[in-house]
Amino acid sequence: MPELVFFSGTMDCGKSTLALQIEHNRSARGLKGLILTRDDRAGEGKLSSRLGLVTDAVEVADDLDLYAYVVDRLSQGGRVDYVIADEAQFLAPAQIDQLARVVDDLGLDVYAFGITTDFRSKLFPGSQRLVELADRVEVLQVEALCWCGARATHNARTVGGRMVVEGAQVVVGDVDRGDDEVGYEVLCRRHHSRRLTSATSRAGSLSPDVLPVAAD
Ligand SMILES: Nc1ncnc2c1ncn2[C@@H]1O[C@H](COP(=O)(O)OP(=O)(O)O)[C@@H](O)[C@H]1O
Ligand SMILES: Cc1cn([C@H]2C[C@H](O)[C@@H](COP(=O)(O)O)O2)c(=O)[nH]c1=O
């Protein structure tokens, strides 16, 4: 049975790498995938992984009807055996419904990859719809780690290493950004709720308040 699968996790847990592996294994067997993405860090029309692999993809615009797009391709003699959608959190809920229809009416597997929650730990609308509609939600097995060593479950947005909680839901960016830049850091829930990033935890441990008092 064809399926809509949502591969979900924090930032930097290997989602795009897995998307590229699935694409590689299937295309090595002569299958033809339609690869969709939106706002990848590598630029328009790219699906990229931090391991250095990158492939061309269709950049999904706000108003692109994904079901109609696949039907058009097929009716023009194009081949589509399966669909991969990376950065699926950025898709509109209606586009997730269209992907579900690709599974149900066209009989194609659809593999969607994305983060579930934003920097305020609120669901992205596209991810919410995926959780509602997917046949399976798969959490990636290579766990990203918080600075404390616990499993990272949340995405923090940072400016100069400090966690921020105000701003637009969508700001394309990466982990390990330099000072003063907007970046992201994955944290466990405890440290996300306390707004304690690796930089602020280091600053706290160096603070004079907590240094041992030197004996005279
Ligand atoms: N230099 C490296 N050596 C080995 N693995 C790496 C390296 N850099 C990144 N990775 C792996 O790549 C993962 C990020 O992969 P990526 O597909 O870009 O993540 P996502 O799409 O989930 O944000 C990291 O969690 C890590 O496992
Ligand atoms: C938490 C959060 C993330 N984003 C952006 C930042 C990146 O461009 C992508 C996630 O990409 P990855 O391949 O999973 O690392 O999402 C955002 O726009 N808003 C957020 O709250």
UniProtKB/TrEMBL annotation:
Catalytic function, reaction form: thymidine + ATP = dTMP + ADP + H(+)
Active-site residues, Swiss-Prot/TrEMBL: E87 (proton acceptor)
One GO process term, biological-process aspect: DNA biosynthetic process
Residues annotated to bind ATP: G9, T10, M11, D12, C13, G14, K15, S16, D86, E87, A88, Q89
EC class of the enzyme, as a word: transferase
Highest taxon of the lineage: Bacteria
GO molecular function terms listed in the Swiss-Prot or TrEMBL record: ATP binding; thymidine kinase activity
Stored Pfam families: TK
Keywords of this entry: ATP-binding, Cytoplasm, DNA synthesis, Kinase, Nucleotide-binding, Transferase
Gene3D superfamilies: 3.30.60.20, P-loop containing nucleotide triphosphate hydrolases
InterPro entries: P-loop_NTPase, Thymidine_kinase
Main localization (coarse): cytoplasm
Keyword Transferase attributed: yes
Location relative to the cell: Cytoplasm
List of residues binding substrate: V170, V171, V172, G173, Y184
Gene Ontology CC annotations of this record: cytosol
Ranges that cross the membrane: none
Annotated signal peptide: none
EC number: 2.7.1.21
Subunit field text: Homotetramer.
PANTHER family to which the protein is assigned, alphabetical: THYMIDINE KINASE, THYMIDINE KINASE, CYTOSOLIC
Family: Belongs to the thymidine kinase family.
Protein name stated in the entry: Thymidine kinase
Lineage: Bacteria, Bacillati, Actinomycetota, Actinomycetes, Kitasatosporales
Gene behind this protein: tdk
